[in-house]
Amino acid sequence: MHFESWQWTLLVAGALAAGFSKTGIPGLGILFVAVFAIVLPARQATGVVLPMLILGDVFAVIVYRRHAQWRHLWRLLPATLAGIVLGWWVLRTADDAQTARLVGLLLFVMLAVHGWRRFRARRDAATPAPSARIFALASGLFAGFSTQVANAAGPVMTLYLLAMRLPKLEFVGTGAVFFMLVNWVKVPFMVQLGLINHDSLLLNLWLAPAVILGAILGWIALPRINAAIFESVALVLAILAVAKLLFW
Q: The pTM is what?
């Protein structure tokens, strides 16, 4: 709990982004994961972020649950669970420096996937959707691993749901239910690793109002926000954070 003023500023901003990403722009998830990995040791950051994600999930599911498409969830969840177990095993054997590099690498991959998705969307809006079953297997495995190691599965899920051509509300609702289920599954693994503990939960308690405020703002802003500008700013900050994790 002994943070400097600039660190508290980043933590509060990250908590706001965590809530906002759940009910507003999902792409912001990559930003707050990077922010917490800068302020906290990489392994501890994963345990602090998870309860805040769950709190944001509650708001997102309340608002968007009726739009969830369960056929996509059933395709994703088995492979996602396998990816979570794999990520838990990696966290058992990795130290803080290795975890920081792994988080940075995962975020780099997410940024590359995000950039590729935007490029393809501009280049060919008529690109056919991939095979749902095969794509769901690969997406679920990568999402489970990246969410367990770095709470960074958002871009993977974004890529999958966009490839399935879901409308905006079905996109948000399906993602909300998916992460609500997956994040609760991760809790016992994080407790066993000692990454969710008394001190991390105390920090969560201090940051909870910012998460709730972010979720409310995201819900209000989603219909009217300029997503392109907001996403561009978030991506620039995420790139700087990835550079810090990989090279500094």
A: 0.73
